[in-house]
Design brief:
The chain contains 14 helices and 24 strands. The protein has 442 residues and is an alpha/beta fold. It has a six-stranded mixed β-sheet with strand order 1-2-6-3-7-19. Strands 11, 12, 13, 14 and 15 form a five-stranded antiparallel β-sheet that branches. The termini are far apart.
């Protein structure tokens, strides 16, 4: 542990400089050009050869110990959020790192630096893949759907996209440390289905002949009200969340609005829970369009899988924290978080964990979010992660091999996983009007 501590300390300034640079240059998912370039340059200065994602931001590199063993993947996320009210958000875009991904990237650089030190790798075996991955925050769904239509991406989240491109082929264990107020981990978090909902009406003069129109705003308000009426029917153990926003609400005040666009997620603790809740919510949303004689297009896209932290890795992470940063209290929480992350995809296929490092203040995704203690959020995080790698891959990787052997994946392969989630996807108009009957598709 002293060797690891010293190795990370050697790159302290690199870590702290990276945290500040990335904080000051926020970019949202699949737009992280500057951030990816900055990280790549720093990795190359450390002597790494990189495999760039190419048409999207991000990259990976492999540290090969030269001794056979498992492959452990370590992630850091490149993207920011949009929070225009944050005092330090970009004044033109509203972008800001109000979830601490800048600290993740800084920590990853610290890990990369430490792994160039021979004494850190001397007793390890296997391979370590360091990934700077884009697009964890599931925002700007319309923009990402455009990228899908162009064929640039297949999946909304960066980790699923990396997985589909083969960048994680050969992985055995995966982890990523997020930033929070304190060190610890939950049992897991919910998954989600991403929704783009378009209510379709008919334009007319709002004052002169409103009877000639079909008001898409009224359809939307009726549909959203119906969906709200369902909330008490969802079981607490399923952790269902539905939180729509209207991104387009009409063109001109003197015209009956013919189109309203709504974006939302349906979140749930399990695939079954969120798929069933989504069908129920779609039924409510359709009712609004039906009530006014309009139509509704619902594009349902696989968002993120539910995340279940591996119990063996929870214990290993706590052990690593106690060894390398004993002054910190690493808490284990049994509850599931109602947030979503694309680390969920990883837990479906690999023994994985998504723990937390302390160092932030304010509300997650809020206008008072700051990395108030970069020592905890970045430097100590890097030390804990290198200690995790040490525990996994020392002694001929006995810990890692045991974890891999005992893990029971939800899906046998990435192909099986993608085949399953593609069945969640659906789109198009949901109401077909006939002369004497109406057909509804949920």
């Amino acid at each position: 542990m002293k060797t690891i501590d010293s190795a990370v300390e050697k790159y302290r300034q690199l870590i702290l400089d990276a945290e500040r640079y990335i904080w000051k240059h926020p970019e949202t998912g699949y737009r992280e050009v500057k951030t990816s370039q900055y990280m790549a340059e720093k990795f190359e200065e450390l002597g790494y050869s990189l495999t760039m994602a190419g048409d999207i931001p991000g990259f990976y590199t492999v540290v090969d110990t030269g001794r056979p063993g498992p492959e452990v993947v370590v992630f850091a996320e490149l993207d920011s959020l949009i929070c225009p009210n944050h005092p330090e958000s970009d004044k033109e875009t509203g972008y800001v790192h109000a979830c601490g991904h800048n600290a993740q990237c800084a920590a990853l650089l610290g890990i990369a630096g430490a792994l160039t030190e021979k004494e850190v790798l001397d007793k390890l075996c296997g391979r370590i893949k360091l990934c700077a991955v884009p697009a964890e925050e599931l925002i700007e769904i319309g923009y990402r759907m455009e990228l899908k239509e162009k064929g640039t991406i297949k999946y909304l989240g960066g980790k699923a996209e990396f997985l589909s491109r083969g960048y994680l082929d050969g992985a055995d264990i995966v982890f990523m440390v997020h930033t929070a107020s304190d060190f610890g981990t939950s049992a897991g978090s919910v998954g989600c289905i991403a929704k783009k909902i378009t209510y379709k009406g008919l334009s007319a003069h709002a004052g002169g002949a409103p009877w000639d129109g079909i008001n898409a705003v009224y359809a939307a308000t009726q549909g959203l009200s119906a969906a709200n009426a369902l909330r008490e029917t969802f079981k607490e153990q399923d952790i269902i969340r539905f939180h729509p926003i209207i991104t387009h609400g009409g063109e001109a005040v003197n015209a009956i609005p013919e189109k309203v666009v709504v974006e939302s997620f349906v979140r749930g603790k399990t695939f079954d829970a969120m798929i069933n809740a989504n069908k129920t919510i779609n039924r409510a949303l359709v009712s609004g369009a039906l009530a006014v004689g309009g139509n509704i297009e619902i594009d349902d896209t696989p968002g993120y899988a539910p995340l279940v932290n591996n119990e063996d890795l929870i214990e290993l992470t706590k052990e690593a924290a106690e060894l390398i940063i004993p002054e910190e209290n690493f808490e284990i929480y049994e509850k599931f978080s109602s947030g979503s992350t694309d680390m969920g995809e990883m837990t479906c296929l690999f023994p994985s964990i998504h723990p937390y490092a302390g160092g932030r203040t304010g509300k997650s995704h809020g206008d008072d979010y700051y990395i108030s203690d970069p020592e905890r959020a970045c430097v100590k995080s890097a030390k804990m992660q290198v200690a995790m790698l040490n525990l996994l891959l020392k002694d001929d990787a006995v810990r890692a091999k045991k974890i891999i052997k005992e893990f029971k994946p939800l899906f046998k392969s990435k192909e099986e996983y993608f085949e399953f989630i593609e069945k969640i996807a659906s789109g198009g108009d949901r109401i077909m009007y006939g002369d004497k009957q109406v057909t509804i598709r949920l």
